[in-house]
Design brief:
Elements lengths: L2 H16 L4 E7 L7 E9 L2 E9 L9 H13 L7 E5 L9 E5 L7 H7 L2 H20 L12 H12 L4 H13 L7 E3 L8 E4 L2 E5 L6 E3 L1 H7 L21 H10 L7 H27 L6 H7 L2 H11 L5
Antiparallel strand pairs: 1-2, 2-3, 3-5, 4-5, 6-9, 7-8
Length: about 325
Amino acid sequence: MAAETLSADVAGVLRPILGPTTEIDNLRALTGGASRTTWAFDAVTGSDRRALILRTGPPDDVHAGMELEAAVQKAAGAVGAPVPDVLIASDSVELLGNPFLICGEIAGETIVRRIQRQLDDDSRARLLRQCARALAAIHRAATDAPGLTEQDAVAEWRHRLDEMGETTATFEWAFRWLAKHRPPPSPLRLVHGDFRMGNLIVDGSGLAAVLDWELVHIGEIYEDLAWFCIRAWRFGAPPSMAAGGLGSIDDFVAAYEHAGGTGVDRAALRWWLVVATLRWGVICRFQAERHLSGQSRSVELAAVGRRVCETEWDLLDLLEGAS
C-alpha cells in the first residue's frame, strides 16, 4: 500500500479514538521482522502530536492475531511487565488491508550490538535483572484472552521439521534424547514465545518495553527462560554471559526467582536449553527452505540457513556425555 493511501486509512482508524480532525504526519517504514511490517508516524490532532507505531501483516496459522497480541500485552502490563500502550488492534482486513495494531512509540534501542556498547558491568547486570523481572511478570499474567492456546514446544518443531521432509542426524538424536529425558510437566503459564535481546527496547541501560508478541501462547516458563539463553541471542558475548549476553544463566535464574517467578529446576532448564537450541536449528533450516524453494529468494534467508551447522555444534556440546 502506498504511504499516502495508508496515511489516509490510518487517520480514518484513529479519528474515533483521538478526534475527528486527526491527521497522519511523517509516516515511514521501519526495519522490521520477517512476519510483520512496522511503521512509525505522528498522529496530529489540533495542537496535540503523538508518536505512534503501526504493525501490520497478513493473517496466518503460525502467528497470534493482532487482537490477541493486544489482549496479552494488556494482561502482562497489568502485572508489571513493560509493554507498549495499545490504542487499537484489529484482525479485520477491511480497514487497512491486513490485520493491524497501533500503539505508542517508546524511545530506546533494539539493535543489540548498539545496546552492548552502551553498557558497563553494573548497567549490564541491572538490565539482566530487569529482563528477569519482566519475564516473571509475564508468567504471572492472566491466560484467559480469547484465542490463546496451549502449545507443546517439542511437538511443534518436530512437525515443522517433518513438513520440510529433510532432517539431520544431530537433530534426530536431539529429538530422541528429549523424548527419553523429558522432565515432569510444570504449571502452565503465559509464555511470550520470543523473549530475547532484539525484541526488547532498551533506553540507556534500562528495559523500556517487551516487543513482538506474535508467538505468545500457553506453555511452561522454561520455554522463555531457555530461549533467552541460547547462543544465538547473546550476539557474540562469551559463554559466561549466556543469558542474553548480559550475565550468567545462574544470575538470570536467581533474579527471576527473586522477582517472584516460579522456582526453577536447574535440571529441567538444561533439558529446555536443548529444546530451545533445537528450535533455533529448525528455524534456520525453515528459513533456508523459504529461499531454496523459491518461495522467498533472499540472501539473508540463505545466510540464516548456513547457521544450521552452528546449531548442530551447540546441540552436540549440550549433549556431550549424555546417554
